[in-house]
Amino acid sequence: ALNKKGHQLQVQEDRRVTLPWTDPHLRLLRGITLDEEQVQAARAALEKRACHIQGVTAFGKTEVMFTVYECLRQKAPTRALLLVTQSPLVDQTYQRAIKYFGPDQVHLVEGKDPELPGEGLVVSTYHTMWIRLFGLIRRGKKGRVSVKPSLKMRQWVKGVDLLLCDEAHRVPGDSRDAMYREVVAHVRASYRLGVSATPKVLNNPARNMALRAWVGDLAFTADEQAQVGKGRIAMTHVWWRIVGLESPLPRTYPGSPAQ
Known about the structure:
By secondary structure, the protein is an alpha/beta fold.
């Protein structure tokens, strides 16, 4: 319509891959073989481009994220950012990534103003990335502590091609999780993948809608019964036995004086 009105427009296709993906593309991780469900999850992420997947613990969600990154970097140089929720997970994820890609391709966000590569996989916590992007002012016993935003980091995230979000259900959280949402919103990657064991929140359609807006639609759900059959997880059975209490039950909690 704009061309018909005389505007000169140049349209550039930004799709970085050729679809549909075939199995050989999705079995590129060094030293492991993905099972069929993991292949389906990775294929869904590549075809949707922006989505989240649901998988129980031990499904291999991290390996799915690594596979998506590997597939993209096989096509073209790729700058990827993987965000995790806790500091211990940073080192754990970093060591696992080195096993697959080598130390030259994996980097950590540490130090006041780290030197980040033009391409490769960068691992960080949401909190650390938030401080780098937006700064921090905090009052403590030693007075006011101020951390300025990193202009280098702000410039670097503009070139991120792939954003990987661990525990994606926290992205549209309440005010305590606002930093998750702000970091994800600031990274304008064309490929976005969130993983979580519990992406949807019951009776909270607004939060579920926000997850779709910031990360993407639910593209794949792992079959829990299939994971039980493979021996990855076990079904939990809980029995409650009330002993020595009169009805109605007193409102006490573990550790309370009335227990």
